[in-house]
């Protein structure tokens, strides 16, 4: 099942005999860690099957195509997130039959980070996911997989690549709104 955070999740509430759940979730990195926690809370609160044995969530961080993307949240925001609600949801008796949970945040794009002032390694991403999902981690049923976030250098390389690709695709050489100069119009140094 594919979901976007913010989408109606009532379909999950109607599935009372699910034993295995595999979700592909698309999250906007603009929402940062708080958005991920809120999204996971919404997903977990809609489960209604008391026989769930396995949950697999692949979370793709992707800004909307029509959005002007800018990271708004500092890394310190993570440490202020109240994890009480998500932990309470995870401790509900409904999840007692749960035997394994896998949360995967693969790096689909080199231009996505969750904070404007930090570059997280895969280990730090995994550690934070374990803190968010601590009740299941303590039960020994949690597997998390995150990737290294892109460095500033990688972000610059991605921007350069995108810029050069757009120039290759644009017959005017990237000139927009003006007439491109013909070879005869070019100045030749003497």
Short description:
The protein has helices at 10-13, 32-46, 84-90, 122-132, 134-138, 152-169; strands spanning 2-4, 20-27, 54-61, 100-105, 142-146. It is an alpha/beta fold and 190 residues long.
SSE map:
Elements: E1 2-4, H1 10-13, E2 20-27, H2 32-46, E3 54-61, H3 84-90, E4 100-105, H4 122-132, H5 134-138, E5 142-146, H6 152-169
Parallel strand pairs: 1-2, 2-3, 3-4, 4-5
Task: Describe the structure using short key phrases.
single chain, 190 residues, alpha/beta, 5-stranded parallel β-sheet, 6 helices, 5 strands, 32% helix, elongated, disordered C terminus
Task: Write up this protein.
Helix 2 packs parallel to helix 3. The protein has one domain. The protein is of the alpha/beta class and 190 residues long. It contains six helices and five strands. The protein has a five-stranded parallel beta sheet. The chain starts with a strand and ends in a 21-residue tail after the last helix.
